[in-house]
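re: ur question from earlier - yeah i can do the single chain one, its not a big deal. heres the input i used so u can compare w yours
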Amino acid sequence: MPIDIVLDAMGSDKAPEPEIRGAILACRQLDVRVHLTGPEDLLRPKLREALKAYARGERLPVFISQASEWINMDDKAAQAVRSKRDSSMRVGLKMVREGRAAGFVTAGNTGAAMATAKMVLGSLSGVDRPALATIVPTTTGRPSLLLDVGANVDSDPENLVQFAVMGHVYAKNVLRIPNPRLGLLSIGEEDGKGNSLTRDTLPLLRELKGINFIGNVEGRDLFNGHADVIVCDGFVGNVALKTCEGTAKLLTVSLKESLKSTVTSQVGALLSRKAFADFKKRLDYSEYGGAILLGVRGVSIVGHGSSNERAIMNGIRVAAEFAQAEVNQGIETALSAR
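and the output i got, formated as tokens:
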């Protein structure tokens, strides 16, 4: 049976075109029904046009749910959440809260998305602060989960313990890792390394039952597959995430320039086209669907503002997988058992 996912049609930098095309792509490739939130008079003609161009005559389950307002990237999150009561974000999250949809996806203002989700959905039992988690590619081919990547600039040891439990459940239920290895991001592997937050958190993580805690990990371990789940506060996690994105772009651009530098390299590039395409795909954020907001009573995915239709489709896929894996029930059970 198809699963219903709500998509904020007014979120991305180039909205609503990427959202509409992404919704069509998702409905063609996944067992989902997509509900676009936004002004119907704006969305209806664009959806009709896109269906004619991309749906190939198929009748696809893409619907529109009216929202008269939307939150821009340059809006101040707290003010916009309070003043825009009929925003595409709030309308979509209300549909999740009321059980009319299993998950919500937006490529809009991250701060506003988190604030609206916390206000509309509320936190899970045992969760003091929700956390943003993101998938990081590794050299092993099996991704790692990094959290928090920006939901909380300041965290205490108890917050990090809760992040660890949430990350463990997500890795086990959605990424299908039977006994995920969990590491605490620090500046050295030794127990005494790090700041007061990591030093105070370390013994608490060691005491967690049912968690495969492997100790401190370093920045280089983000990519080598040493840990399946890596926990940190939101300030450190956001810096790490933005560094990863910048490094990936540098590698892709530098490689492209090098391949064009000589005739010989151009011939080599033609012969290795598939390998280079695979390389670019492994570093492409659009393949991972966005950051997952863990700890709220519902499913909420926050994508990059520059998301294209493929990134939107993958965000819908991640939302559907999250909802079907019953992650939130697992988080509440694990936290209550501490």
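The mean pLDDT is 89. not sure if urs matches, ping me
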